[in-house]
Amino acid sequence: MPPRNSLRRFLAATTGALLVTATAACAAEPSPEVAVRSFLLNWQEGDYEAAAQVTNGDVAEVAEALRQAHNQLDLAALRLSLRPIEMDGDTATAGFGAEADLGIGDPVWRYTGTIPLTRTDSGWVIDWSPAVIHPELGEGERLAVTYDVPDRGQIYDRNGEPLVEETEVTAFGVRPAAMADMTEGINSLAELLDEDPEPLLNRVRSAPPEEFQPLVLKRTQDVSSSLLAKATAIPGVEVEEGTMPLLPIRAAGVVGEVAGTAEHKVANRVSGPYQAGDTVGLNGLQSSFQQQLAGTATTRVVTLSSSGEETGVLETWTGEESGSLTTTLDHAVQEAAETSLATINGTAYLVAVDARSGEILAAAGQPDEPSNDGALTRQYYPGETFTIVSAAALLSGGKATLDTTMACEQQAEVGSRTFTNPNGGSLLGTPDLRTNFAYSCTTAFVGLSSSLSAADLAESAERFGIGQPWQLPVPAFSGEFTVQGGQEQVAAATVGADGITVSPLGMALVAAAVAGGQWHAPRLIDGVEPEVDSIPVDPAVLEPLRELMRAPVEQGSASVLNIDYVNPVHGQTGMVTQEIDGEEKTIQWFVGYRGHVAFAVVVEAAPSHTYQFAVNSALSFLQLLPASYVSAAEADSQLEGSA
Questions:
Q1: For the domain 6-139, what is the CATH code?
Q2: I need a surface site. Which of 98, 211, 473, 643 has the fewest CB within 10 A?
Q3: Contacting residues for 228 by C-beta, under 8 A, at least 6 apart
């Protein structure tokens, strides 16, 4: 249990004292109440010798029994209240109520007890026995707190495949009865494992002394023979081997990390009511669904015999069973995404969604680490991939058609800003919109932007989901459009160079809107529907947009992806300069779809004039994608139904 709260102790003690005193003030003398009041107040305040003085037991033995009861329960606070006293000649029975605070994260144990008294020549004294502490505590017995912790639940993909692997773990713990000096032993173990000793001590003090108490979990592969030897050399320290679902098999940045792995430090890494040895999700779904996945322990206050056998259960607080979680992720699609990024030496992301529903099929990041959730959260300029959105704005307002021509010069100036094509080249003549889109011609779209306003672009961006107020159970960025006006700013936004930020997920959803005929808010958890309504793509715009997105693959900047004429790839490339963590980077994009899988690839690279890394990763992903996602019949049916 975590360190106790001293303020909580003080308030409980002082409030309890007032309760006892107030009750006592109404009593008439002579009365056994004086002895009872003195006993309860001193017991509550931890002055066990003073409490023992008003009993007929051996003072040292009674004081030690009260002290041990406190330690056996590892109490944060004890609050006692006096109840009616019944007298019968020279004997009396006093009732009392107890509220024993078992600590932060643990319940408060409330029970009632009775105190027998006898009148002697020197006054009333308490007839001592262990039953004074609790009516069911017998001679030679002690108290203890036990915990039955449910196994952590699994996280599954859409097909029931586990996303978290069973990991071999080593539990370092103690058998309290075998410890020569509990405090010294726990301190030694904590120092060896680089842990805070206080939570470990709190767990052990109240535990059954004959039972093994797991305190710190480590992956077995991270435990050296030297560490094992040093740990087990401490009297009472033992280790046990086992397996737990701790490490993500796939989608590490979405699934998240569980404390209890290589750097298990629940005490100083996680706030809240967690005990030494618990598994705690630190990020991702493991954190968002911590209570569902971990459940809560069933806590019991029990009595034990001198040999450590359980003799009775005084109170039980039933915990919640752990549960599993099913996501929309697809293990095979996720594997394809991760494999396609594996050769990238730097930061890269790939997100794939089902165009029919917005369900997230894969969210991969490079580096592939639980702390890297950039597939859903990283904020980038979209570069020329935003021409999907700006082309929709041009087409929907009748400001352009597929036959509209515009020169594709190497450079173009608007106001004080100079725009350059991604590869530094140009196209001959005055190409039509389809050709300019095919080659991601920045300067041509800058020229076309003169017929657009900031409001036109903002409306189109909104209809493709950018900035929509959807939410996922893990951190995610829906995008932001901040252009207020001015032709220079509109030109920059038209080609995704400024005034617009998106996440890889956000751009995958843009491609999905074209593939499926309507934009859907993303979904990550099976059975959980988004609260944001779907938005249909203007039917007059949809087919021209699909034709535009076919052009880069057929003849333009992404022709390497022209791998299937029956079920063709559609998409758009983009490249933009952006400062990332204080360093100038070239952000390479490919955004597209095949069948009902829409996806976005983004790669942070050194300044360059190529889409190579993003396009090659897209090619690898498509080649590894399960055939069921790109079958021609299924894709045709899906597209016809949405047109």
A1: 3.10.450.100
A2: 643
A3: 170, 239
Half-sphere exposure of 112 (CA within 13 A, CB side): 7
Phi and psi (nearest 5°) for 334? Answer: -65, -40
Determine the pLDDT at residue 276.
55
pLDDT tens by residue, 523-571: 999 999 999 999 999 999 999 999 999 999 999 999 999 998 888 999 9
6-139 and 331-642: same fold? no
Distance between CA 501 and CA 478 in Å, rounded?
9
Q: Which amino acid is at 25?
A: A
Which sequence spans correspond to the domains of the chain? Answer: 6-139, 155-326, 331-642
Q: What is the DSSP string of 49-83?
A: HHHHTTBSS-HHHHHHHHHHHHHHHT-SEEEEEEE
- The mean pLDDT value for 229-254 works out to 93
Compute φ and ψ for 134, nearest 5 degrees: -150, 140
Task: Supply the mean pLDDT for the chain.
Answer: 89
Sign of the CA dihedral with 565 first, then 567, 572, and 578 last: negative
Q: pTM of the predicted model, to two decimals?
A: 0.83
Tokens for 135?
């009516």
The Cα 475–Cα 461 span in angstroms is 21
Residues 348, 261: Cα–Cα separation, whole Å:
26
pLDDT digits (tens, 9 = 90+) for 185-214: 999 999 999 888 988 888 888 888 888 988
As a whole number of Å, the CA-based R_g of the chain is 35
- Provide the CATH topology of domain 331-642: Beta-lactamase (3.40.710)
Other CB atoms within 10 A of residue 572 CB: 31
| Joined tokens for residue 589 | 């994009």
Tokens linked to 564: 């299937």
Report the 10 Å Cβ neighbour count for 105. 15
Strand order in the sheet with 164-174: 213-219, 164-174, 237-248
Query: DSSP states of 430-475 as a string?
Result: --BHHHHHHTT-HHHHHHHGGG--HHHHHHHHHHTTTT-----SS-
Tokens 């330690």 belong to 71
